[in-house]
Amino acid sequence: MIDYEVFEREIEKGKIKNSYIFCGLDEELIKDGINVVIKKTLGVDTDDFNLIKIDGMKTNFDEIMNACETFPLMSDKKVVFVYRANFLRDKTDEASKKIYKSLKEYLSNMPPYTVLIMYYLFNDKREKANKNKKLISLDKSITVVHCDKLRRDAYIKKINDIFKERKKNIGKAELIYFSEKVQNNFDIIKREVDKLISYTIGRDINKEDINLLISNSGEEDVFDLVELIAQRKIESAMDVMREILYKSDQHMLIINNLERQFIRLYEIKTGLASGEKVQDFISKFKLPKFICEKLVSQSHRFSEKQLIELIKLCVKTEKNLKSSSIDKTMEMELLLINTLTVKK
């Protein structure tokens, strides 16, 4: 069993196996890997003659086997692509178990001219490739590629490749900023890249464009997180943080939003002290009235001194998160615990 980065390195060396199973949560990342194998096997101008697609939800073993056995047309190779191959899940019905059992026996006798590719999506983050008995058993005769979250450098590089594919340059600082702000899901990432490109036709992308176009879907979650910090309910705050991570798995995105929230509250706190009103914050932050009213209400829960210390904690945590040698979730939990030491 290999991860996506090992798979990419093998492809770069020209090592194409005769069968693959892709699995994970990010379907777009999985499809990218599959498309690379198809193009490397059949060429850039892929014709449908030697690419057979099968719906794994509706198929049976005979259909897969017959597709694999058919000779390629005017080519040395053909690709059989079984998508939504849910019969590979650990727990399935009897029909799926039958497909799996027959396929397992067949894999060692596959014709050399066929490249078989299958994939299925995990139900949630709790599903693990190395806990799936079917995948472990098949790993001896087929290459299983677990498409998990990429390491930071590989993640940023892949996002940069998306910009390059669309023939749009982006500066290094802007690329890193974008990668930390966007959700770690390549379907979402590609749509956000397309939005940025359409908005910045004829000029370079800057941070203001990124802030304007990429929505902070986790802002409500971060508001709740800050509210629990104010109430010193750290165990509940940890539950909320784990839920946010479950949805996005973006530690840096959370800490950036959390830091941003405390900075806003500090600016509101000092602004109120100097006579500013809600209307002033609406203009300043370009936020709806009801959100500014909520922020004003939340600012009353903290002192100026407390907010300064909380911002410092976030900055320290952000710096620590950029190190690849730490447990990022534990670092976030430590941040929440440390908020208890910040006095009003």
If you had to describe this structure to a student in words, what would you say it looks like?
The chain is α/β, with parallel strands linked by helices. It folds into 3 domains: 146 residues, P-loop containing nucleotide triphosphate hydrolases (Rossmann fold, 3-Layer(aba) Sandwich), CATH 3.40.50; 62 residues, Helicase, Ruva Protein, domain 3; 123 residues, Zinc Finger, Delta Prime, domain 3 (Up-down Bundle). It is 57% helix and 9% strand. The protein has a 6-stranded parallel β-sheet, with helices on both faces. α3 links the parallel β3 and β4. α10 crosses α12 and α12 crosses α14. The protein is elongated, with a radius of gyration of 25 Å. The termini are far apart. Its EC number is 2.7.7.7. GO terms for molecular function: DNA-directed DNA polymerase activity. Belongs to the DNA polymerase HolA subunit family.
